[in-house]
Amino acid sequence: MIALFALLAIGQTAATDPPPPDPSNDIIVRSIRKLDDWRAVLIFQDDTPTCRVVKSTGDAAIDAVGCATMVQCFVTTKPQFAALNNRALSASKRRSMRLAANRAMEECFKTTRRTMMVDLTNRRSALESKDRDR
Q1: Which residues face 55 on adjacent strands?
Q2: DSSP assigned state of 31
Q3: Could you tell me the pTM of the whole model?
Q4: Residue 75 in contact with residue 49, Cβ under 8 Å?
Q5: pLDDT tens by residue, 111-123
Q6: pLDDT digits (tens, 9 = 90+) for 44-56
């Protein structure tokens, strides 16, 4: 079973840069943080992954973003993880390949989840705006 982990990267700013805006005020960051305690598993049927939520955020759309991210990133990095099954690999080569596969998974999670969350936020904002205009 392939373990799936996502890490949020925190950028560093130089001392002369102005302080960044408070991320807690950013709706996208707040939405992504809802996934911190979210849990799901991938279930495979005929080698096709399906996501099942184990611990929900309480927001079905955000849960769907988490699941879509898991499935997409699994499919994207599956060949890298499958290559680790080659018994001819030395332990050090397997270790370096596993690190590279984990980094690819982490990067996929970070970028895919952010892209999907921006899209969700934009769709929700458009709906709210439409409702206000009525």
Answers
A1: 39
A2: H
A3: 0.72
A4: yes
A5: 999 999 999 999 9
A6: 988 899 999 999 9
